Amino acid sequence: MPAYIIFVKNKTLDPDELKTYSQKAAPAGAGHPITPLAFYGPLEVLEGDDAEGVVLISFPDKAAARAWYDSPAYQDAKQHRLKGADYRVILAEGIG
């Protein structure tokens, strides 16, 4: 069953930290079955709080999503995301 990780950037706190995050997060995907579906493109908030940006990435299953998210390379990058912006990150399982 496919799985999706959704990043919702609520508010930028430190653009330099986000730049470092981007530089580290991209190579952290190497060797993982990631398919980007949306990446900070135009968005329209229909309900709820405003968002600065949204990323939606797909994985073959929840285990693959967790393997990427929990990987040492992504965890290293994540520390810069946490300093750089307020995000919501959601792991959702798709339907088979």
Description:
- The chain is α+β, with helices and mostly antiparallel strands.
- It has one domain: Alpha-Beta Plaits, CATH 3.30.70.100.
- Helices cover 36% and strands 32% of the residues.
- The protein contains 3 helices and 4 strands, in the order βαββααβ.
- The protein has helices spanning 15-28, 62-69, 72-84, and strands at 3-12, 35-39, 53-59, 85-93.
- A 4-stranded antiparallel sheet has the order 2-3-1-4.
- Helix 1 runs antiparallel to helix 3 (72-84).
- What does the oligomeric state look like here? single chain
Structural class: alpha+beta
Name of the level-1 CATH class: Alpha Beta
The strands making up the biggest β-sheet line up spatially as 2-3-1-4
| Poorly predicted ranges | none
H/E order of the elements?
Answer: EHEEHHE
Basic shape: globular
Helix content: 25-40%
Summed over residues and divided by their number, the pLDDT gives a mean of 97
Largest sheet at a glance? 4 strands, antiparallel
CATH architecture: 2-Layer Sandwich
Distance between the termini: 5 Å
Number of strands: 4
Which percent band covers the strand fraction? 25-35%
* Count, helices: 3
Gyration radius, to the nearest Å? 13 Å
CATH fold name:
Alpha-Beta Plaits
